[in-house]
Amino acid sequence: MTKEPPNDADDLKKSGDHFTDKPLKDKIGSNLKRIYDDVVNEAVPDDFLALLSKVDTPNK
């Protein structure tokens, strides 16, 4: 008697992971949008703002 190796996708479905309910293309798209939104909403670091202000200031 041979036993089949466990299927990871089946294990995820049994565990109640609703992420597997959507097609892969939709999962990738929604996660990329979430990551993009997180990055866009991050504050600009003070060091970077200081560098930008130096660039904007004309040389004397």
User: Helix tally?
Assistant: 3
* Spans of at least 5 consecutive residues with low confidence: none
Number of strands: 0
Task: Describe the sheet with the most strands.
Answer: none
Q: Helix/strand/pairing class, anyone?
A: mainly alpha
Q: Span from first to last CA?
A: 85 Å
Q: How much helix is in the residues?
A: 55-70%
* Average pLDDT rating: 80
Overview of the molecule:
This is Anti-sigma factor NepR domain-containing protein. It comes from Litorimonas cladophorae. This protein is an all-alpha fold. The protein has a domain of 38 residues. Helix content is 58%, strand content 0%. It has 3 helices and no strands. The longest helix has 17 residues.
Q: In terms of topology, how is this protein built?
A:
Blueprint lengths: L7 H7 L9 H17 L5 H11 L4
Protein name: Anti-sigma factor NepR domain-containing protein
Pfam families: NepR (PF18557)
